[in-house]
Write a structure and sequence with these properties.
- This protein is α/β, with parallel strands linked by helices.
- The chain is built from 10 helices and 22 strands.
- Helix 1 packs parallel to helix 3 and helix 1 packs across helix 10.
- It is globular.
Length: 419
């Protein structure tokens, strides 16, 4: 097979890979990006039709280019987001090679750096940036067996209500994906059950500012690591329908049935934890804490932002919260499909390097692994809370590019004897 050499190889041409390319180009570092499908493919083919960005266009973008077709406070649709990265890659001249899948990556046995194997040939690189993102292998809990008489899919396979068979739908997971999908199904006239686990529930906006602005001025985007016990807490926030705060009580008032965390399945019945009220109460506490901090910030800085007392008024407790449903017979409830909005797990089985913990998660410090020359980019909490967001990955990429330049300078040094 032909062997190609390059200084730095980037694997993945999503937001992380494109950001990395921009900074490496600015630093004069020769590099190549390999993408197994198209640029930003997951935005196009692994998300539902009506998906929009969770942040407004003025915020969720790279510093060098605005969204062409969305107003600053609008929430771009998934196709526009994907097109944004294609246009950006073209604008910066990113050396992207699409349709090339890396099947194995390991140390180069014949010299320094790494060896990437693809169907098109072998590429040897002194450095490699794994920019494959945080959403790799969809996780579906082994709760409901395949032969249970109900259609099951992960949220990555869901496209629109018409895709599902007739009947009610159970959506498991009340983060951004689950909440948005459940509301879309409800608006389409479906009977919807939503399994609500632990979550944070920030306001979509408050006192005339989007929550992304509040998290910025309050310094929360820069939190260096999740607090203990909150590493896997989902965030219930949505830009759908122009953007509004996710309020589970409101969804219940509109006809949705809320249940607790999905636990077991037996003889056609699903059982749920008795934690629904506590999960909603804890989500409320998170919501109110943001309002409290925002009010204090306004007062401290004498900002002319209008008060919003309505934001603190809660919808009445629905009966599904005060008298929780602890089990459901799927057939009796007419549930024909289950959508698992239950997140993702890392999938680095193709990487032969001792840089992962016992759960397969990368071990790194701000994206720099202890395997010299191997870097990670685009992961949640890579350096701070904002790392997995479009704007956050751009800043993380700049840091990694600086580290690569530093190492290149050391390696380029020659002593007085020229060695």
């Amino acid at each position: 097979m032909p062997v190609e050499t390059i200084d730095t190889l980037i694997i993945g041409a999503g937001q992380a890979g494109i950001a990395m390319s921009e900074h490496l180009s600015a630093a004069g570092v020769p590099h190549l990006i390999l993408e197994r499908h198209r640029i930003a493919e997951r935005w196009r083919s692994e998300r539902w039709d009506s998906l929009v960005a969770n942040g407004p266009a003025w915020h969720d973008r790279f510093p060098g280019m605005e969204f062409e077709n969305s107003a600053p406070d609008a929430f771009p649709g998934k196709e526009e987001v994907a097109d944004y990265f294609v246009t950006y890659a073209d604008r910066i001249g990113a050396p992207v090679r699409t349709g090339v899948e890396v099947t194995r990556l390991g140390r180069n046995p014949a010299g320094p750096g790494f060896r990437a194997e693809t169907a098109q040939g072998v590429i040897e690189a002194r450095r490699v940036v794994l920019a494959t993102g945080p959403f790799q292998r969809p996780v579906v809990p082994a709760i409901v067996p395949e032969g249970a008489g109900v259609v099951q899919m992960h949220s990555t396979a869901y496209r629109n209500p018409g895709q599902l068979p007739d009947g009610a739908v159970l959506v498991v997971g009340a983060g951004s994906s689950g909440a948005q999908i459940a509301e879309e199904l409800l608006r389409a006239g479906r009977k919807v059950y939503l399994s609500v686990g632990p979550h944070d529930r920030p306001p979509r906006s408050y006192r005339g500012r989007d929550f992304v602005w509040w998290l910025g001025v309050l310094g929360k985007w820069d939190a260096p690591a999740p607090t203990p016990g909150t590493e896997h807490i989902t965030i219930a926030v949505s830009g759908a329908n122009g953007g509004r705060t996710v309020d589970f009580r409101r969804l219940a008032a509109e006809g949705m049935t809320l249940v607790g965390r999905t636990e077991t399945f037996r003889d056609g019945r699903l059982s749920f934890a008795p934690d629904l009220a506590a999960n909603i109460r804890n989500g409320d506490a998170n919501y109110l804490s943001v309002l409290d901090e925002a009010d204090a910030f306004v007062a401290r800085n004498a900002l002319d932002l209008p008060e919003e007392p309505e934001a603190r008024r809660m919808w009445p407790e629905p009966s599904c919260v005060t008298d929780p449903i602890l089990s459901i017979d799927l057939a009796e409830a007419g549930i024909g499909s289950i959508i698992w909005a239950t997140g993702f797990a890392p999938d680095y089985g193709w990487v032969d390097a001792d840089v992962f913990d016992d759960r397969g998660r990368p071990v790194h410090k701000r994206g720099v692994s202890h395997e010299q020359g191997l870097y990670f980019l685009g992961l949640s909490w890579l350096s701070r809370r904002g790392s997995a967001f479009i704007w956050g990955v751009w800043h993380d990429a700049k840091y990694l590019a600086d580290q690569i330049v530093i190492q290149r300078n050391y390696q380029a040094y020659r002593g007085p004897d020229g060695r």
